[in-house]
Hints:
Blueprint: E1 7-12, E2 28-34, E3 37-40, E4 48-49, E5 54-57, H1 58-65, E6 69-72, E7 77-82, E8 87-88, H2 92-98, E9 102-107, E10 109-111, E11 114-118, H3 123-126, E12 128-133, E13 138-143, E14 152-153, E15 167-172, E16 192-195, E17 198-200, E18 207-209, H4 213-221, E19 225-231, H5 236-243, H6 246-263, E20 267-271, H7 280-296, E21 300-305, H8 320-326, E22 329-332, H9 351-361, E23 370-375, E24 377-386, E25 389-398, H10 399-408, E26 414-416, E27 421-428, E28 431-436, H11 440-452, E29 457-461, H12 469-479
Parallel strand pairs: 8-14, 15-16, 15-29, 16-19, 17-19, 19-20, 20-21, 21-22, 22-23, 23-29
Antiparallel strand pairs: 1-2, 1-13, 2-3, 4-5, 5-11, 6-7, 7-9, 10-11, 12-13, 17-18, 24-25, 24-28, 26-27, 27-28
Helix pairs in contact: 6-7, 11-12
Organism: Dendrosporobacter quercicolus
Protein name: Copper amine oxidase N-terminal domain-containing protein
GO molecular function, one term: chitin binding
Amino acid sequence: MKKNLLMVAVLLLCSLISSIALANPAESNIVIITNDGQQPLHLAEQALVDQYRVMLPVAVIKEYLYNAVELDAANNRAVVNFGLPKFRLETEKLDELIYSGVKLNFPVKKIDGKPYINFYGLDKLFGVTVDYQESSRTVRIRPGQNSFFAPLKLNKPRSRQAFTGKINLVWDHITGEPRDLALAAKVPGLDVLSPTWFAIVSPDGLVASKADLKYVQDAHDKGYQVWALVSNSFDRDLTRAVLHNEWARRNVIKQLLVYSSLYGLDGINIDFENIYDEDRDRLTEFVRELTAALKEQNSIVSIDITVPSPASSWSQCYDRAALGQIVDYVMVMTYDEHWRTSPVSGPVASLGWVEQGLVATLRSIPSEKLLMGVPFYTREWEETSENGKVTVKPRTLSMTQAQQIVQANALEPVWLADKGQYYTEYTKEGKTYRIWLEDEKSIALKANLAGKYQLAGAASWRKGFEQPAIWDILKSALKHR
């Protein structure tokens, strides 16, 4: 930061933006307030503010706040190299990991062709303080007194919250704009949201982030915990490169520690899939390293695994017994019985298959640590028969989409007791379409297995694909025992 900078004032000349998506941003000028008074920026840039975002141009951040900012235009993110961090983590042991610096990244939003990032909540990282004066419609960014030698703590260790009954978790698949939880009603019986925010994207261990502070604040206001998901991008070669490189593993851990502290996360959910079987032990060691670091923050650590099977790279890559000893919770993905690229049609999670998968998993994982997977989705299978050969083409559906197909084609689903779900089919233009439905009845039967086997709870994929009545079903199965 330039020495003579006392504050950056973002003067809002128009009314505040009410649209969360910033579809119609108000123009605003930026000036620098120094000892000599106000000086206009020499950059022709504007800032945008709505109820909870301070959208600053990347160019302004680089020029006036912190110059070690690089724009990764191809992936729509700004990468910031904090070589001498002015912040510290929860304990001295964790601080030792970041003394040498850490690279973080933040989603970029293009507005009128120019890159912006949401600066809300990032002030501690950059060593500044931010306040908004409504009377003058001014956002002030003041340089703080902290430095590498007089740093500011990002957070304090979280206190673990006890759950009433079994854990009810749902994964929240985040793609584009941050989700505004404040607009949604509180879900009855829901304990944990797991937004898909983090993914390892490069061999040096860069973790792409889509984290959003307001999401966490709104979740906490509604009584939810937030266990953010980190994936390996489901890339075997990328995963191998990271697991075989001690520096890259440490890089991943450093970033997750900072993000966890910065955003006030309650936990991290590890979702590593499609891994070379030969890297099984290295995966276990990485999970041990990451868990030990996160425990310094008192974070809850969980990992997702598939049901035991002979499948190379998808099942044999997990040392279930070892992983179960390391982490707090294990989510077994008791769905995708017939996966997206399955050569034959079939249910996503028939009752017998789910129970068989749970029994097999419990041979390695203690029941008090195991959450069963619950599908909020199904698939429509398009079958084409040609020369005696049947080829299938699946389409993933939410519960509502599946019911819409049933209604549009005046179908009458039949109950399959051996599958624990309704089934329907129809023909159109010489093709057969099959759907094994997921609904209140099928979900109730599966969720009751959590009680039968005294599991820690259930984890559902994915938020937004369910029908509203499903939440009462899960609450009844998980909270009333």
